[in-house]
Amino acid sequence: MNPLLEDFNTPYNSSPFSKIKNEHYKPAFIKAIEIAKNEIDAVVNNTEEATFKNTLEALDFSGELLGRVSSIFFNLNHAETSEEIQKIAKEVSPLLSEFGNDIGLNQELFQRIKSVHEIKSELDLSPEQNTLLEKNYKSFVRNGANLNDTDKETLRAIDKELAQTSLSFGENLLAATNQYELHLTNADDLEGLPDGVIEAAAMTAKEKSKDGWIFNLDYPSYIPFMTYAKSSELRKEISFASGSKTNKGDDFDNQKNVLRIVELRHQRANLLGYDNHAAFVLEEQMATSSQKVTGFLTNLLEKSKPAALKEHEELTNFANKLDGLNSLQSYDAGYYTEKLKQELFDLDDEKLKPYFKLENVIQGAFTVANKLYDLNFEEIFDIDKYHEDVITYKVTDDQGNYVALFYADFHPRPGKQNGAWMTSFNNQYIKDGVNNRPHIVNVCNFTKPTETKPSLLTFGEVTTLFHEFGHALHGILANTTYPGLSGTSVFRDFVELPSQMLENWCYEKEALELFAFHYETGEVIPLELIQKIKDSANFMEATRMLRQISFGMTDMAWHSTNPNDINNVIDFEQKAMAETKIYPHIEGTCFSTGFSHIFDGGYSSGYYSYKWAEVLDADAFEYFSNNGIFNKEIARKFKEFILSKGGSEHPMELYKKFRGQEPDNDALLKRAGLLQ
To answer: Is 39 a catalytic residue?
Structure first.
């Protein structure tokens, strides 16, 4: 009896977490892979002439059970992991990699796809069907279908090792993050910290049966400490811990993993006929080439760096006036930026947080979704949760029809990775006339409620919640036939458009007044605070932009350079970041060894896409703001051509259908105040 391999027989076919035990996973993977192989064999051994239906469609609908098992297991490996789950991940990752190669290198399967591709002009394919055909054909070519047998075996070995090395990178990062704690017992060391932050640190210490206060590298603990703690020495200590956590030559050091990952990716790209990994990745993105990405980032650098240097000079002068500092270190930046922001705008997170009770912000996101897309969110209690912190919702449309399940997991805990992300337990697709609706998850790490206060969000956390909820809407409103094109299955440099777009509503009076109520008095956020939020929106914007450009350029450097020319991780990183550096390097720290987006995520050669998507979102929101932020007709077009279409057509074509024109790059610079 393995619940992963049986019909769930649960409300909405939801995942039966309470029945699943760790010992169920590996047998489920083995069985699901076997079934998926049989489904592929049925496609390959079909004696009929290859058609779109018996080949492309059959292939896309294969592996449904394997997808279900994988989504449950790997989502929990990020949100609710343990040593046992990590051990299973190491055992099943090579099996999955091998299975992926079995498909990608299956010559008979490729020949069937190729034969359909050769006559595609004669077929009456819809845009979605044509996209599926092109995506699968290119996927086979890009995964070695045209290689000889020897090179195919080499590719298999590379992919297997890559899967294991990336997994090790992520495990090291999580273990090193969890290992560190700053344990304070002197109340004087807490000077500057808000009461809520102090209370949370006391609660953490109490949970560990210790006196005093404990701060760690989880964002809800680390970021407030770096922003408010008056002690420069303590900021330096915890900052160094963060910057050096996977760079200390111990069991959690990631330097060798970084070098090996870029080496394997380069080998793989060369084997497939590409100059480097960046060239391989970008062929299937809106940006198309590393030259275009580098040009895009360089253009933003030229526009933002002079302004960022002015911002730095202003910040240094302020720190000198306040505390007699003649130069600033990176661990001073957050503290003095917050102080300067308070002086210029009389605005800080502590003034805003009382208006951003987590439950109210969640409801605010739901209300915005309702006003734009006629969606309703009802908390339900009849489906399993993988942790007691998770809240579950049934999503319906304005006719009361079931649209999706939504899982909200918003607080940090041991075994949960830092950061914020959207994922799914079940994708949307249409099969045999039935529209299989998605089960979407938002995972964040917001401060837990304390004994005296609810979970109150910083404004940055409010925008994070809306960002991830934008991704969620991309999944919730998905409405394509094929699972391989559904929801967020789009080009990497397009996927951030729905998420970054929704952040804009956080700055609008009309939206804020829907959910920003004082948690004690119920008072709606005052107009003067809303104005200050808008006035301060571009504060230090050039510095923030430079930071993102730095990450994008570092990513491109790692993946467009021959790794034979790279001997030292830190030295290479420093050269890659040289043009974007403002603060001096702190000896012993390294960003790349913790850069999970590109070494343990899907953003290798793709980190630029955050800025790329900002251009799209600035241009798209300009359309809304010029016509009303809750304009139903524009919302309908965004839902129809962006949110529901997934990857069923080329993103530029979808964007033009929504906007009526290509995006204007200047929209981002205008919004950032860098272009008049």
So the answer is: no
